Amino acid sequence: MFDPDLFGKGSKIIVIAKDKGDLVRYGVKKDNIYFAHELNNMQSLRLFGYYAFKGKQPTAELVELARKVTDFAGGLPLGLAVLGSLLSNMRTKEEWESMLEKLSSAPGEGIDKVLKVSMDALDPNQLQVFFDIACSKECASFLWKDSGHYPSNTIKCLEERCLISLDAEDRPIINNRIQHCGHKWGIRKGYCKCEMLAMNILDGLDLRQQNVFLDVACCLIGHEKEYATYMWVDCGYSPTDAIEVLEHRSVISIDEKGTFRMDDKIRDVGRSMVEKRELTPSRIWNENDLREAFDGWK
Known about the structure:
mainly alpha, two-stranded antiparallel sheet, two-stranded antiparallel ribbon, 16 helices, 57% helix, P-loop_NTPase, Disease resistance protein Roq1-like winged-helix domain-containing protein, ADP binding, Apaf_helical, Disease_R_plants
């Protein structure tokens, strides 16, 4: 899993995993595995208060309402952070009671209910940017670059609501659970426009750049750039500038190992174009299609 020699004597190494089996397979002793339990009532109230009151002393009425609100999070830190951030700008008892009523009547259970209410509190512009991120971070960046407007203020608001976070380069990061819920609701509400955006990826690209994009989407994700370059050169064209253009438009990326990466939705759009015979020559990546093609040559 990692090289122990990289750490000094006496270092404590903490590994976080969703599946206990992954830790066991990599040699972690079962006695060294700790299962993170939900927070108890007092811990939940403290964490919620950190986000909701931001160091200010709440009234006795709000403290009592806070106890009721925290029940909806089920002891999950993510839900408590989202709820607390949502209520941080509400100061009156009436506003809190109104939010309690919304939580009680919202569909779903636990964290799903909390996220649904938090999303409903966003204005249309905030909601669109949130769904852009939830549906596809890479597609969202491409959309914002193409429009010439990066929604910095809206992203900051979403961060303050604990719906997203920012990495060291201020790029949006979204929790897997929040992303799953956001993607599902975004499609249902018609906000997830990344699929429509991806259909316009080829606009402005020449034929060689289009072919490089489709080659990567269909066959070369996870393969080394150097390996693919040999193939393209044998086909009679140099792919260097095409790769640079696709990278600049955030259609593809190259990781630290020199291998191609691509957002799943952009990949699926490329493959869909090939399946519909919208572009030629065709590429085959599916095992069943490959078997069918070989059968046709007999």
